[in-house]
């Protein structure tokens, strides 16, 4: 039994019905990505955001996630963006460079635009780890779809962003 992971999400999100949430996802490792996007949509809907207020765009790979996220913020007036990707370690240094650059880029965009950017990037050492963390599972382990948590995080941070905007 592991103690890792987020505390249970709040059970209600008052005001969620007024939010606009963006999802930007990479298309590399698409089986994993599709499951993550599905999980995120499930929790965002459960939190009370209408489906027509969730905007989805895709980019080729995780390297392009920062610019795709920046574009979503500039063009769609969203309250938060969830950026989804999956980088699986191979035999060259690409993994390290893509993860490092993309994650720094995403953090920078959130801080500079003041629109919360939720980190939905799996950076894993094997396909099995990716399938487990996308809730698809493999080799007898069902796993957990981490995007369920990311969806709730996006709604929580979007509400905080709205509150902050009212104060300033
Ligand atoms: N993009 C991902 O989202 N996940 C990966 O695991 C991934 N691995 C890559 C490995 C190599 C060797 C290369 C060349 C690209 C990889 N990309 C991956 C794509 C990358 O994010 C980007 O879309 C392309 O490099 C085009 O800019």
Automatic annotation (TrEMBL):
Pfam families: DMRL_synthase. It catalyses: (2S)-2-hydroxy-3-oxobutyl phosphate + 5-amino-6-(D-ribitylamino)uracil = 6,7-dimethyl-8-(1-D-ribityl)lumazine + phosphate + 2 H2O + H(+). One of its GO terms (cellular component) is mitochondrial intermembrane space. It is an enzyme of class 2 (transferase). Pathway: Cofactor biosynthesis; riboflavin biosynthesis; riboflavin from 2-hydroxy-3-oxobutyl phosphate and 5-amino-6-(D-ribitylamino)uracil: step 1/2. Catalyzes the formation of 6,7-dimethyl-8-ribityllumazine by condensation of 5-amino-6-(D-ribitylamino)uracil with 3,4-dihydroxy-2-butanone 4-phosphate. This is the penultimate step in the biosynthesis of riboflavin. Belongs to the DMRL synthase family. This is 6,7-dimethyl-8-ribityllumazine synthase. The lineage of its organism: Eukaryota, Fungi, Dikarya, Basidiomycota, Ustilaginomycotina.
